[in-house]
Amino acid sequence: MTSLDKPTGDTEADDARAVTEAALFEAFGGVRGMVETVLPGLLFVTIFTINSDLHLSAIAALAVSLVLVAVRLVMKDTVKHAFSGVFGVAFGVVFAMMTDNAKNFYLPGMLYTLGLALAYIVTTLAGVPLIGLILGPVFKENLSWRTRNPGRKKAYAKASWAWGLILLAKCAVLFPLYWWADTESLGWVLVTLKIPPFLLAVWLTWVFLAKAPAPIDVFAEMEAAEKAEQAEQERGEEERAAGRDRTDGVLSGAREPAVDDTPGLAADGETGPADSRGGRHRGPRKG
After folding, report:
1. Burial of 269 (0-12, 13-18, 19+ CB in 10 A)
2. What is the pTM of this model?
3. Which end of the chain offers a freer environment for a tag, N or C, measured as fewer CB atoms within 10 Å?
Protein backbone atom coordinates (compact mmCIF):
# COMPACT_ATOMS: atom_id res chain seq x y z
CA MET A 1 0.00 0.00 0.00
CA THR A 2 1.44 3.34 -1.04
CA SER A 3 1.20 6.53 1.00
CA LEU A 4 -1.63 7.67 -1.28
CA ASP A 5 -3.57 4.49 -0.52
CA LYS A 6 -3.26 4.85 3.27
CA PRO A 7 -6.50 5.62 5.10
CA THR A 8 -6.73 9.11 6.54
CA GLY A 9 -6.90 7.71 10.07
CA ASP A 10 -3.58 5.90 9.63
CA THR A 11 -1.93 9.05 8.31
CA GLU A 12 -3.16 11.09 11.25
CA ALA A 13 -1.95 8.41 13.67
CA ASP A 14 1.47 8.40 12.03
CA ASP A 15 1.63 12.19 12.28
CA ALA A 16 0.71 12.02 15.97
CA ARG A 17 3.45 9.45 16.63
CA ALA A 18 5.99 11.55 14.76
CA VAL A 19 5.06 14.65 16.77
CA THR A 20 5.31 12.65 20.01
CA GLU A 21 8.71 11.27 19.08
CA ALA A 22 10.02 14.74 18.20
CA ALA A 23 8.70 16.21 21.44
CA LEU A 24 10.24 13.45 23.58
CA PHE A 25 13.53 13.82 21.72
CA GLU A 26 13.53 17.55 22.44
CA ALA A 27 12.47 17.20 26.07
CA PHE A 28 14.98 14.53 27.06
CA GLY A 29 17.91 15.51 24.86
CA GLY A 30 18.11 12.53 22.55
CA VAL A 31 21.33 10.62 21.99
CA ARG A 32 23.53 13.63 22.64
CA GLY A 33 21.83 14.33 25.94
CA MET A 34 22.40 10.73 27.03
CA VAL A 35 26.09 10.96 26.14
CA GLU A 36 26.41 14.16 28.16
CA THR A 37 24.74 12.45 31.09
CA VAL A 38 26.88 9.34 31.05
CA LEU A 39 30.33 10.59 30.04
CA PRO A 40 31.39 12.48 33.23
CA GLY A 41 30.50 9.60 35.55
CA LEU A 42 32.08 7.09 33.20
CA LEU A 43 35.31 9.09 33.14
CA PHE A 44 35.30 9.43 36.93
CA VAL A 45 34.89 5.72 37.64
CA THR A 46 37.38 4.74 34.92
CA ILE A 47 40.17 6.95 36.27
CA PHE A 48 39.41 6.02 39.87
CA THR A 49 39.44 2.33 39.01
CA ILE A 50 42.86 2.71 37.39
CA ASN A 51 44.70 4.75 40.04
CA SER A 52 42.27 5.45 42.95
CA ASP A 53 43.05 9.17 42.68
CA LEU A 54 39.99 11.09 43.88
CA HIS A 55 41.25 14.53 42.88
CA LEU A 56 42.28 13.53 39.36
CA SER A 57 39.01 11.65 38.80
CA ALA A 58 36.89 14.54 40.04
CA ILE A 59 38.78 17.18 38.04
CA ALA A 60 38.57 15.09 34.87
CA ALA A 61 34.80 14.59 35.25
CA LEU A 62 34.21 18.30 35.86
CA ALA A 63 36.48 19.29 32.98
CA VAL A 64 34.69 17.09 30.45
CA SER A 65 31.33 18.51 31.61
CA LEU A 66 32.57 22.04 30.98
CA VAL A 67 33.89 21.02 27.56
CA LEU A 68 30.47 19.64 26.63
CA VAL A 69 28.85 22.94 27.60
CA ALA A 70 31.47 24.90 25.63
CA VAL A 71 30.82 22.78 22.54
CA ARG A 72 27.10 23.51 22.75
CA LEU A 73 27.73 27.21 23.19
CA VAL A 74 30.05 27.30 20.17
CA MET A 75 27.44 25.47 18.10
CA LYS A 76 24.72 27.81 19.45
CA ASP A 77 22.73 24.83 20.61
CA THR A 78 20.51 24.47 23.69
CA VAL A 79 22.63 24.00 26.81
CA LYS A 80 20.03 22.91 29.36
CA HIS A 81 21.06 19.24 29.33
CA ALA A 82 24.78 20.00 29.40
CA PHE A 83 24.33 22.56 32.18
CA SER A 84 22.35 20.10 34.26
CA GLY A 85 25.26 17.67 33.85
CA VAL A 86 27.73 20.32 34.98
CA PHE A 87 25.73 21.11 38.11
CA GLY A 88 25.38 17.42 38.97
CA VAL A 89 29.08 16.78 38.52
CA ALA A 90 30.00 19.95 40.44
CA PHE A 91 27.89 18.90 43.42
CA GLY A 92 29.41 15.43 43.30
CA VAL A 93 32.93 16.87 43.23
CA VAL A 94 32.19 19.14 46.20
CA PHE A 95 30.70 16.29 48.24
CA ALA A 96 33.60 13.97 47.47
CA MET A 97 36.27 16.59 48.17
CA MET A 98 34.70 17.80 51.43
CA THR A 99 34.32 14.28 52.82
CA ASP A 100 37.44 12.87 51.15
CA ASN A 101 35.28 9.94 50.10
CA ALA A 102 35.11 9.10 46.39
CA LYS A 103 31.81 7.28 46.88
CA ASN A 104 30.14 10.58 47.75
CA PHE A 105 30.73 11.76 44.17
CA TYR A 106 27.62 9.75 43.29
CA LEU A 107 25.48 10.74 46.27
CA PRO A 108 23.97 14.03 44.92
CA GLY A 109 22.84 12.29 41.74
CA MET A 110 21.33 9.43 43.72
CA LEU A 111 19.44 11.84 45.98
CA TYR A 112 18.22 13.74 42.93
CA THR A 113 16.95 10.50 41.39
CA LEU A 114 15.09 9.63 44.58
CA GLY A 115 13.55 13.10 44.80
CA LEU A 116 12.51 12.97 41.15
CA ALA A 117 10.86 9.57 41.64
CA LEU A 118 8.86 10.90 44.58
CA ALA A 119 7.94 14.03 42.59
CA TYR A 120 6.50 11.92 39.76
CA ILE A 121 4.41 9.89 42.18
CA VAL A 122 3.23 12.74 44.42
CA THR A 123 2.25 15.03 41.52
CA THR A 124 0.33 12.20 39.89
CA LEU A 125 -1.57 11.53 43.11
CA ALA A 126 -2.31 15.27 43.31
CA GLY A 127 -3.85 15.22 39.82
CA VAL A 128 -1.05 17.20 38.16
CA PRO A 129 1.35 14.53 36.79
CA LEU A 130 4.86 15.87 36.44
CA ILE A 131 5.42 14.49 32.96
CA GLY A 132 2.49 16.63 31.79
CA LEU A 133 4.06 19.74 33.30
CA ILE A 134 7.31 18.91 31.49
CA LEU A 135 5.86 18.03 28.09
CA GLY A 136 2.87 20.40 28.01
CA PRO A 137 4.89 23.39 26.77
CA VAL A 138 6.76 21.16 24.31
CA PHE A 139 3.46 20.07 22.74
CA LYS A 140 2.21 23.72 22.85
CA GLU A 141 -0.71 22.66 25.03
CA ASN A 142 0.54 24.05 28.36
CA LEU A 143 -1.96 22.92 31.03
CA SER A 144 -4.99 22.55 28.75
CA TRP A 145 -4.83 18.76 29.25
CA ARG A 146 -5.89 19.17 32.89
CA THR A 147 -9.45 20.34 32.17
CA ARG A 148 -10.02 20.13 28.43
CA ASN A 149 -8.38 16.85 27.43
CA PRO A 150 -9.08 14.09 30.00
CA GLY A 151 -7.74 11.31 27.78
CA ARG A 152 -4.41 13.06 27.54
CA LYS A 153 -4.34 13.71 31.28
CA LYS A 154 -4.83 9.98 31.84
CA ALA A 155 -1.89 9.22 29.52
CA TYR A 156 0.31 11.70 31.39
CA ALA A 157 -0.67 10.06 34.66
CA LYS A 158 0.31 6.62 33.36
CA ALA A 159 3.63 7.95 32.09
CA SER A 160 4.37 9.67 35.39
CA TRP A 161 3.65 6.47 37.29
CA ALA A 162 6.05 4.65 34.97
CA TRP A 163 8.81 7.20 35.55
CA GLY A 164 8.29 7.22 39.31
CA LEU A 165 8.31 3.44 39.72
CA ILE A 166 11.28 2.92 37.39
CA LEU A 167 13.35 5.52 39.24
CA LEU A 168 12.35 4.05 42.59
CA ALA A 169 13.50 0.63 41.40
CA LYS A 170 16.80 2.18 40.35
CA CYS A 171 17.20 3.74 43.81
CA ALA A 172 16.42 0.39 45.41
CA VAL A 173 19.51 -1.02 43.67
CA LEU A 174 21.87 1.93 44.16
CA PHE A 175 21.37 2.91 47.79
CA PRO A 176 22.24 -0.51 49.24
CA LEU A 177 25.37 -0.48 47.06
CA TYR A 178 26.24 2.95 48.39
CA TRP A 179 26.34 1.56 51.92
CA TRP A 180 27.84 -1.85 51.28
CA ALA A 181 29.85 -1.86 48.03
CA ASP A 182 33.14 -0.17 47.22
CA THR A 183 33.44 2.94 45.05
CA GLU A 184 34.38 1.09 41.87
CA SER A 185 31.47 -1.34 42.08
CA LEU A 186 28.98 1.43 42.82
CA GLY A 187 30.36 3.55 39.98
CA TRP A 188 30.16 0.83 37.35
CA VAL A 189 26.65 -0.22 38.38
CA LEU A 190 25.53 3.40 38.35
CA VAL A 191 26.98 3.97 34.87
CA THR A 192 25.32 0.76 33.68
CA LEU A 193 21.94 1.90 35.04
CA LYS A 194 22.11 5.36 33.51
CA ILE A 195 20.64 4.55 30.10
CA PRO A 196 18.42 1.39 30.21
CA PRO A 197 15.89 2.65 32.82
CA PHE A 198 15.79 6.01 31.07
CA LEU A 199 15.07 4.43 27.69
CA LEU A 200 12.38 2.22 29.22
CA ALA A 201 10.64 5.21 30.77
CA VAL A 202 10.85 7.21 27.52
CA TRP A 203 9.49 4.28 25.52
CA LEU A 204 6.54 3.80 27.88
CA THR A 205 5.83 7.54 27.71
CA TRP A 206 5.79 7.31 23.92
CA VAL A 207 3.42 4.32 24.04
CA PHE A 208 0.96 6.08 26.34
CA LEU A 209 1.00 9.40 24.48
CA ALA A 210 0.84 7.86 21.00
CA LYS A 211 -2.53 6.33 21.95
CA ALA A 212 -3.80 9.49 23.67
CA PRO A 213 -5.93 12.22 22.05
CA ALA A 214 -4.02 14.88 20.16
CA PRO A 215 -2.81 17.87 22.21
CA ILE A 216 -4.78 21.12 22.12
CA ASP A 217 -2.54 23.79 20.61
CA VAL A 218 -3.33 26.69 22.93
CA PHE A 219 -0.76 28.88 21.20
CA ALA A 220 -2.63 28.51 17.90
CA GLU A 221 -5.89 29.26 19.70
CA MET A 222 -4.45 32.46 21.18
CA GLU A 223 -3.15 33.55 17.78
CA ALA A 224 -6.54 32.87 16.19
CA ALA A 225 -8.28 34.85 18.95
CA GLU A 226 -5.89 37.77 18.44
CA LYS A 227 -6.48 37.74 14.69
CA ALA A 228 -10.26 37.61 15.20
CA GLU A 229 -10.09 40.52 17.65
CA GLN A 230 -7.94 42.52 15.25
CA ALA A 231 -10.34 41.80 12.37
CA GLU A 232 -13.27 42.91 14.56
CA GLN A 233 -11.48 46.14 15.40
CA GLU A 234 -10.72 46.82 11.74
CA ARG A 235 -14.34 46.12 10.80
CA GLY A 236 -15.53 48.50 13.51
CA GLU A 237 -13.19 51.22 12.29
CA GLU A 238 -14.46 50.77 8.72
CA GLU A 239 -18.08 51.03 9.91
CA ARG A 240 -17.31 54.17 11.90
CA ALA A 241 -15.55 55.69 8.89
CA ALA A 242 -18.53 54.87 6.66
CA GLY A 243 -20.87 56.43 9.24
CA ARG A 244 -18.79 59.62 9.29
CA ASP A 245 -18.92 59.81 5.47
CA ARG A 246 -22.73 59.50 5.48
CA THR A 247 -23.02 62.17 8.17
CA ASP A 248 -20.76 64.54 6.23
CA GLY A 249 -22.83 63.99 3.10
CA VAL A 250 -26.06 64.85 4.89
CA LEU A 251 -24.57 67.98 6.44
CA SER A 252 -23.11 69.22 3.14
CA GLY A 253 -26.46 68.74 1.43
CA ALA A 254 -28.20 70.78 4.11
CA ARG A 255 -25.78 73.69 3.57
CA GLU A 256 -26.51 74.06 -0.25
CA PRO A 257 -28.97 76.98 -1.13
CA ALA A 258 -32.44 75.94 -2.19
CA VAL A 259 -33.63 76.77 -5.74
CA ASP A 260 -36.31 79.54 -5.78
CA ASP A 261 -39.12 78.49 -8.10
CA THR A 262 -41.53 81.34 -7.18
CA PRO A 263 -42.27 84.07 -9.82
CA GLY A 264 -39.86 86.98 -9.51
CA LEU A 265 -40.69 90.68 -9.39
CA ALA A 266 -40.18 92.77 -12.51
CA ALA A 267 -38.05 95.91 -12.44
CA ASP A 268 -41.11 98.11 -12.16
CA GLY A 269 -42.61 96.04 -9.43
CA GLU A 270 -44.94 94.10 -11.67
CA THR A 271 -44.81 90.44 -11.81
CA GLY A 272 -44.93 88.32 -14.85
CA PRO A 273 -43.50 85.15 -16.30
CA ALA A 274 -39.87 85.27 -17.33
CA ASP A 275 -39.10 85.33 -21.03
CA SER A 276 -36.53 83.23 -22.74
CA ARG A 277 -33.83 85.89 -22.14
CA GLY A 278 -34.30 85.98 -18.45
CA GLY A 279 -36.51 89.10 -18.49
CA ARG A 280 -40.13 89.46 -17.56
CA HIS A 281 -43.04 89.85 -19.96
CA ARG A 282 -44.91 92.98 -19.21
CA GLY A 283 -48.34 93.88 -20.31
CA PRO A 284 -48.94 96.59 -23.08
CA ARG A 285 -48.13 100.11 -22.03
CA LYS A 286 -50.98 102.55 -21.85
CA GLY A 287 -50.57 105.55 -24.19
Report:
1. exposed
2. 0.72
3. C
